[in-house]
Amino acid sequence: MFRLMRVWVLLLPIFISVPNAQAVLRFSNSYRSWRNKERPVRKSTSLIILHTTETTSPAALKKLRDNGECHYYVALDGLVYRVIDHRRVAFHAGRSMWNGRTNVDNFSVGIEVSGYHNKPLTSAQYRAVAELVGELKYIYKVTDRNVLSHCQVAYGAPNKWHKRSHRGRKRCGMNMTSTAVRKILNLRERALYDPDVRAGRLAVGDPHLAQVLYGSSGAGQKSLAYLTPQESNVISRNRNAWDIARDLYNAPTTLYIFPNGSRKQGHQVADFKLLPAGTKVVVTSSVDNPDESFKIVGQHGRAQDIAGAEVLADSTVYIFADGSYKRGNQLSAQQVLKLPYGTKVLVGYTVGGPVSASRLASTICGSRWRSKDTFFLISGSLVPGDEVDDTKIPAGTMIFFRK
Ligand SMILES: [Zn+2]
């Protein structure tokens, strides 16, 4: 009896909201993701996250569906596609943190809007996003201040340019953060500062983004004038490969065209700091959250290049060729310098396990066990969560998942 009542309490707000929604919102179910069945219901929902797809190609919707990477997709004409059920976990935020809580996917709804972070939405999209966000705010009791853009919650692990974990991994959804646009979206309040930067958990990686988001006065911007549609893709003294390509700087899909006309793919560039001024960077992938795989000592530089200031942190995990592993805080500075070539490195990770009959992968790391960036240590190999055969995970297997 009690169980039944709880179900009704859960469903009621959704039914109530439908008549309002029909007035303006138009939904399509033609791109519902088959991954719904493998995604658990979230335990809580405190944030709504807005994204821009960085393309207007319909191929983006197909990819979002195939990977279950958003709850809703808002097309240029304002049609709203339901992709993942809004109560379930969608993998939309990637490496993320807000107010000290990591893996924002576990407590947020994600809306992908077709378009670019530095261009206005269409008027049909403004109406649709406003209505949709209004509905979700009502269902989950989310405050205006907790409607954020992806660029506000995404963060990057240390890399060649940033020695610390940093905000500014991407500018996704930046066009929906200004006071003027938020007014159109019916959002009266905004986050006035970055709680993770303020607390020292993250460094500022993109000063321009920080200025746009919080300004020096904290009052926010009044117009769309801050948008910079002509973001240069040419390397100069003030603009490096990371500024242009962000986390895709070393991806095979990113192309470097040198002043002399020769070309290299991202993974073929040996030293990004030596790229000559005038080199063009062509980012062809529009993946919102590039798969973060492990890095390898030797292949991707030294441990300190890969993990930066977090080289000795307990959240940096080193996996050795013999299948053993150590966390950064279990090694000395001397030992880290001497890590053998081929050592695999995961930055910003938690060690979970071992798997047993009574302690399944899902008990250890929740919905993330099926994620591409979760790794199972099986016979000395790191097997990604989306490739592991869940019927054949040996007892004793350790799992590395993002913090
Ligand atoms: Zn995004």
Brief digest:
The chain is of the alpha+beta class and 403 residues long. It contains eleven helices and 22 strands.
Structure, explained:
It is a single chain. With 403 residues, the chain is an alpha+beta fold. The protein has 3 domains: 2-226, Lysozyme-like, CATH 3.40.80.10; 241-283, no CATH class; 295-402, no CATH class. Helix content is 23%, strand content 18%. The strands form 6 sheets. A 6-stranded mixed β-sheet has the order 1-4-3-7-2-8. The chain has a 4-stranded antiparallel β-sheet with strand order 15-18-16-17. A 4-stranded antiparallel β-sheet has the order 19-22-20-21. A hairpin with a 5-residue loop joins strand 16 (316-319) and strand 17. Helix 1 runs antiparallel to helix 3 (123-140). It is globular. Mean pLDDT is 88; it is low at 1-22 and 217-225. The structure holds zinc ion (ZN). Zinc ion binds next to loops.
Largest sheet: 6 strands, mixed
Number of continuous helical runs: 11
Instruction: Just name the CATH architecture of the largest domain.
Output: 3-Layer(aba) Sandwich
Cα-to-Cα separation, first versus last residue: 38 Å
Fill in the CATH topology of the largest domain.
Answer: Lysozyme-like
What structural class do the secondary elements suggest? alpha+beta
Distinct compounds present: zinc ion
CATH superfamily of the largest domain: Peptidoglycan recognition protein-like
Top CATH class of the largest domain? Alpha Beta
pLDDT averaged residue by residue: 88
Radius of gyration: 22 Å
Fraction of residues in helices?
10-25%
The count of DSSP E runs of length 2 or more, i.e. the number of strands, is 22
Shape: globular
What is the number of domains? 3
Strand residue percentage: 15-25%
The low-confidence parts are: 1-22, 217-225
